[in-house]
TrEMBL record:
<keyword id="KW-0732">Signal</keyword>
<feature type="compositionally biased region" description="Basic and acidic residues">
    <location>
        <begin position="53"/>
        <end position="66"/>
    </location>
</feature>
<feature type="region of interest" description="Disordered">
    <location>
        <begin position="53"/>
        <end position="72"/>
    </location>
</feature>
<feature type="signal peptide">
    <location>
        <begin position="1"/>
        <end position="26"/>
    </location>
</feature>
<protein>
    <submittedName>
        <fullName>Uncharacterized protein</fullName>
    </submittedName>
</protein>
Length: 72
């Protein structure tokens, strides 16, 4: 990720994915953020990811975030 904006977007994407997988901590974070427009952009961005390596990188980030949430 090139800049902080991209990293923030990826973090929000991770939060959304974890929330959709049923992790309550991430769901609470998503609700607290109250960013429906940002979530919509994240969904579009995720759908536009073509390369399997980028998808794997996002899955790794999701797993890492999940571990951090559980450790907190």
């Amino acid at each position: 990720m090139a800049d902080a904006g991209d990293e923030d977007c990826l973090l929000l994407l991770v939060l959304l994915e974890v929330a959709l997988l049923g992790e309550p901590t991430a769901l609470e974070d998503c609700l607290r953020l109250n960013t429906a427009a940002v979530m919509s952009n994240m969904i579009r961005r995720y759908r536009s990811v073509c390369s399997e390596s980028e998808k794997e990188e996002m899955r790794d980030d999701k797993r890492r975030y999940s571990s951090e949430c559980l450790a907190a």
